[in-house]
Amino acid sequence: MTTSTAATGPSLYELPADHPGSSDQAYRERRAAIAAVGEAYVVGQRIPEVVYTPEEDEVWRMVQSHLTVEHDRYAVAAYRDGAARLALRTDRVPQLQEVSDRLFALTGWRITPVPGLVPTRVFYGSLAERRFMSTQYIRHHSVPFYTPEPDVVHELIGHCNMLAEPRLADLYQLAGDASLRAESDEALEFFSRVFWFSLEFGVLRADGELRTYGAGLLSSYGEIGRFREARIEPFDLRTMGTTDYDISKYQPVLFAAESFDRAYDDLVEFFSTYGEAAYRVRWAGAADEEEAGPGV
């Protein structure tokens, strides 16, 4: 994930050309240094601290304070309960170890630091062990309300607040278990799309309005205020599992459950029973029909 600028020069974290920090050498050096912490981590050890800069702490304070207001308006009650239980720091970027300790006391979850994106099966598989893989870097200061990839804001505010609520914490583990039973790439892809349109970008109706329980929306200041403008489709697992999505754009279509309890019960049933056999018998037909298009 890193490249050296010279034999004795600093390492630069590889970023795509359209990334906000791609031309900022200091940011890329910083990303490489933080990635090295996750790269060297061994499960079971204490998570090494990252000494965040005043600029990085300010990005955290700004984004967290703005999102807290939006959560009161748009987040489901279960998420708000989890956030209150976890009580993330507001004055600086929280250290992963302190959040991990608090999560373990609340719901038995732990955090594992990683340098960046990890393989799909590795990420989902860790959920089965009640371990959440988290990055430690923070988004570029020039665009505090946007990141093209998961950062510590997304991991902690989006996912870890959810993991502090017992029902949602159990749901994540069930999802991890389901991923392990999805042996083929096709079965894992169907599962991943359901996960995307639920635990990442799920919405539902509560208190007479549309609210979200998706970590992707809950950690995005830009998108959380606009998700009600998306095309809202009924909560349907077959359709969710065969709908394409683009991670680089606001989601144009979302799937709304009629209540939190309905979404929760349906997802528990899906994750508890999903696996290679269930995919082939119950769900593969829907995927094949989506790929083939309308028949005669």
Protein architecture, described:
The chain is α/β, with parallel strands linked by helices and 296 residues long. The chain folds into 2 domains: 1-40, no CATH class; 53-292, Orthogonal Bundle (Phenylalanine Hydroxylase), CATH 1.10.800.10. Helices cover 52% and strands 10% of the residues. It has 13 helices and 8 strands. The longest helix is centred in the first third of the chain and has 21 residues, at 54-74. The termini are far apart. Residues 1-9 and 290-296 have low confidence and may be disordered.
Helices and strands, in order, run as: EEHHHHEHEHHHEEHHEHEHH
User: What is the CATH domain class of the largest domain?
Assistant: Mainly Alpha
CATH-defined fold name of the largest domain = Phenylalanine Hydroxylase
Q: What is the average of the pLDDT values? A: 92
Strand tally is 8
Give the uncertain stretches in residue-range form: 1-9, 290-296
State the CATH architecture of the largest domain: Orthogonal Bundle
| Largest beta-sheet details | 4 strands, mixed
Structure at a glance:
The protein is an alpha/beta fold.
